[in-house]
Specification:
CATH topology: Sufe protein. Chain: A
Structural class: alpha+beta
CATH class: Alpha Beta
Radius of gyration: 14 Å
CATH architecture: Alpha-Beta Complex
Order of helices and strands: HHEEHEHHH
Low-confidence stretches: none
Largest sheet: 3 strands, antiparallel
Strand content: 5-15%
Helix content: 40-55%
Number of strands: 3
Shape: globular
Mean pLDDT: 93
Strand order of the largest sheet: 1-2-3
Distance between the termini: 24 Å
Length: about 140
């Protein structure tokens, strides 16, 4: 499934919930489903700068596609990681770089996060796109 289709599927999932307490529960459940990150990858180098909580992110490239692993020490942040990994994982680097991520607006995520978490979301996206940019130039 392509990046846009995955993102649109997430928007549909979020639209099933009427209020934000249910949407937060969904975000938390996504975080619980996130594959465990290896301890040795939880390094200072892999920390996402700008996040209130600790968020680690690593990426690998295989055949032009980018594969991400992420984790956080906070449940909402881990859920946001899972949301982004779900959309970006296994996608072509060039698609990740050029995607405008309008699904975040459609979900209403940014305006329902605290300013610190919103900054963290932007930092995660920037780091994921930076990885993709490096991989698209190799």
């Amino acid at each position: 499934m392509g990046l846009d289709e995955t993102a649109e599927e997430l928007v549909e999932d979020f639209n099933l919930f009427e209020d934000w307490s249910d949407k937060y529960e969904y975000i938390i459940s996504l975080g619980k489903e996130l594959s465990a990150m290896k301890k040795e990858d939880k390094t200072e180098e892999n920390l996402v700068k700008g996040c209130q909580s600790q968020v680690w992110l690593v990426a690998k490239e295989k055949n032009g596609n980018v594969f991400f692993e992420a984790d956080s020490d906070a449940i909402i942040s881990k859920g946001i990681c899972a949301l982004l990994v779900k959309v970006f994982n296994g996608q072509p680097a060039s698609e990740i770089v050029k995607n405008n991520l309008d699904f975040i607006e459609k979900i209403g995520l940014k305006e329902h996060l605290s300013p610190n978490r919103s900054n963290g979301l932007v930092a995660m996206i920037k780091k994921m796109k930076a990885y993709a940019l490096v991989f698209s130039n190799t």
